[in-house]
Specification:
- With 245 residues, the chain is of the alpha/beta class.
- It has one domain: Rossmann fold (3-Layer(aba) Sandwich), CATH 3.40.50.
- It is built from 9 helices and 8 strands.
- The chain has an 8-stranded mixed β-sheet with strand order 1-2-4-3-5-6-7-8, sandwiched between helices.
- β3, α1 and β4 form a beta-alpha-beta unit.
- It starts with a strand and ends with a helix.
């Protein structure tokens, strides 16, 4: 069953979708974290299909699977910044109380998932999909990034011009390689498309190497950057959940 609710996070109101399995009851929760869209107008659609994916995963795995649209994305209010999204994720995790939470993040959402888990030893495991290991290369020039994010809609038009250097520094502080190094002995799954044009597949290997090899890596042949609808990715994630029930 898929339920929707509104969750307050600072000045933002987030849309939280939670899928519960119909047959098995588990204290395990998988929280899916969407990425950061840089294409014009895509801020409204970055979390598209994730509630449906959450429901399918819940019914197949027996886990509770949730996904939230973070500040500035979808129908959620507010604007993106690294501290804001970090606050959002912490608020969502808190709603699950003492249940054992794992994180699965797409794109920059994977970098956020790694950072949250690195700082919170209660996180049970992390899966990343098409996640950049080197954020400086992924972001490019700070001014260009800010312009793209305004065009995508994740930075509200009501937000005045700001100093982009500290804005970018907050994102860089997530440091996916250092965060990955802090995950073991907890479980880590890194999935990447072999034909990803936005984030090279070598970044996946760099993340696993940073974890001293204590992680699973899957390079999906002929896959690009968008992985959420690829049945091979879903099957791999389901297998990972099953092995760590």
């Amino acid at each position: 069953m898929l339920t929707r609710e509104s969750l307050t996070s600072g000045d933002s109101v987030l849309d939280l979708a939670t899928a519960t399995p119909a047959t098995r009851v588990s204290d395990r929760v998988l929280l899916i974290v969407h990425g950061l869209p840089k294409a014009p107008g895509m801020g409204r659609h970055a979390a598209g299909m994730l509630p449906e994916l959450a429901d399918a995963l819940a019914q197949e795995s027996g886990w509770t699977v949730a996904t939230a649209t973070l500040s500035g994305v979808g129908s959620s209010t507010g604007s993106f910044s690294a501290p804001t999204w970090r606050r959002d994720i912490d608020e969502v995790i808190a709603t699950f109380g003492d249940q054992r939470v794992s994180l699965a993040g797409f794109g920059l959402g994977g970098a956020l998932a790694l950072r949250v888990a690195a700082d919170n030893p209660a996180i049970y495991g992390v899966a990343t999909f098409a996640t950049p290991a080197h954020l400086d290369k992924w972001m490019g020039e700070p001014a260009d990034l800010a312009r793209l994010l305004r065009a995508s809609g994740v930075i509200s038009a009501q937000v005045p011009d700001f100093d982009v250097e500290p804005f970018v520094a907050d994102i860089l502080a997530w440091d996916p390689l250092a965060a990955a190094a802090a995950i073991p002995p907890r479980r880590l799954l890194v999935i990447h498309g072999a034909d990803d044009k936005e984030v090279p597949s070598s970044d996946a290997r760099d993340l696993v190497d940073a974890a001293d090899g204590h992680g699973e890596i899957r390079i999906i042949q002929s896959a690009g950057h968008v992985l959420r609808a690829d049945p091979r990715v879903v099957a791999t994630l389901l297998g990972w959940l099953e092995r760590h029930r």
